[in-house]
Write a structure and sequence with these properties.
By secondary structure, the protein is of the alpha/beta class. It has helices at residues 20-35, 63-68, 79-88, 103-108, 124-127, 134-140, 161-184, 194-201, 203-209, 244-250, 264-280, 284-294, 304-307, 311-315; strands spanning 9-14, 39-44, 72-76, 93-97, 112-117, 189-193, 227-230, 233-236, 299-300, 319-320, 325-326, 328-329, 334-335, 338-339, 345-346. Helix 4 (103-108) links the parallel strand 4 (93-97) and strand 5 (112-117). It starts with 8 loop residues before the first strand and ends in an 11-residue tail after the last strand.
Length: 357
């Protein structure tokens, strides 16, 4: 099992009052470096908000906390003692949230700083006192204007996509800091803002906003790529105009060919009306099988528990775990061509593996 950072110590510094969205991003950064063999000291001052983030296992244990603390040494200390202990551990890097009072002290001690923040550096002073969470940051980047009904308030994205993506970006910065120190001894300071991460994730909308033509916005049922109800759930239907011959094969018996030369909006409207009953008469598996046969990118919508038995996830050995441990997704990366492995996480007391799903 490859562990490229087995000789590295990193501190994840959780202060009391750290906003939960930044705490999630910090924890993901630390989780990824711990998976690669680093000794991760998670120093917690005061209550850790991760312990109150759903989903909850049997016994009220946070599944999110269990997932993000795998392989870490959790140490509860006062804020001042945490700083002193972090310095004494002589880590290569420290992961912290913006505004940490001892950030410069770590940098002065030759410790790389990976800082998770709300706003880009240029906006920090202007918006420093602005109350914000991940929902507001996603909205600020136009990330919530992609899907949904136009007359309805935006909905939260599932899970913690923005925090986790920022954590992966910060992990990249942390990796660079470790490698740079090994190369020439330089100590780096990386600042990853969740707003910039959201813009990066939603770059098409930002580029389109300055260009001619219609801008990306929530279209609801008028969207080109709708989600249709099936017998046992939902499936997303995606196609391009040059796939009409394939669509004729997939939807045999429907008047697909006559729609090809229609104006785009009329074509989209008529096509969706024609195929919606077809989806309703079939299960997600039947829809997916037909789509694979004709090369149409249909996406069934699955619940988390269903993914454990999905043939694609099984074939790729996507989840790690064994009897007596929790099954988690593997780190989404390779190192020098080798697949990285997660550390096993024992099932907490009073919890079952199924209760996390």
């Amino acid at each position: 099992m490859m562990k490229p950072f087995s000789d590295v110590t990193v501190v994840e510094l959780c202060r009391e009052g750290t906003p939960v969205h930044l705490r999630l991003a910090m924890a993901m950064t630390g989780r990824l470096i711990a998976d690669q063999g680093a000794r991760l000291l998670c120093m917690v001052s005061g209550p850790d908000r991760l312990e109150h983030v759903p989903p909850f296992l049997d016994g009220g244990i946070s599944g999110t906390h269990a997932f993000l603390t795998v392989g870490k040494e959790i140490v509860a200390l006062s804020s001042e003692a945490a700083t002193e202990s972090a310095l004494a551990a002589q880590p290569v890097a420290v992961i912290l949230a913006e505004g940490d009072v001892d950030r410069d002290r770590f940098a002065a001690a030759g410790i790389a700083v990976v800082e998770l923040a709300n706003w880009p550096k240029a906006m920090r002073e202007e918006l420093a006192d602005e109350p914000v969470n991940d929902f507001a940051l996603a909205a600020s980047a136009g990330f919530l204007d992609v899907i949904g009904e136009p007359g309805r308030a935006p909905l939260r994205l599932g899970g913690h996509q923005l925090s986790y993506s920022a954590g992966m970006s910060a992990f990249t910065a942390l990796t660079a800091a470790v490698v740079q120190r090994d190369l020439d001894g330089r100590v780096l300071h990386a600042r990853v803002s969740l707003l910039e991460t959201a813009v990066w994730m939603n770059w098409k909308a930002i580029v389109g906003a300055d260009g001619p033509g219609p801008h990306t916005t929530r279209a609801g049922n008028d969207a080109d790529f709708p989600v249709f109800r099936c017998k046992d759930g939902w499936a997303a239907f995606v196609y391009t105009p040059n796939q009409f011959e394939r669509l004729e094969g997939m939807f045999a018996g429907l008047p697909i060919r006559e729609m090809k030369g229609l104006p785009p909006e009329e074509r989209s409207r008529r096509l969706k009306a024609a195929v919606e009953p077809w989806f309703a008469e079939r299960t997600r598996a039947e829809v997916y099988a037909a789509a694979r046969e004709f090369g149409i990118p249909v996406g069934p919508v699955y619940a988390p528990g269903e993914l454990l038995e999905d043939e694609q996830y099984l074939a790729r050995d996507f989840f790690t775990g064994s009897p007596g441990t929790l099954r988690f997704p593997r780190p989404p990366m390779t190192w020098n061509g080798a697949r990285l492995e997660s550390r096993p996480a024992p099932v907490p007391a009073h919890a079952t593996e199924e209760s996390i799903l």
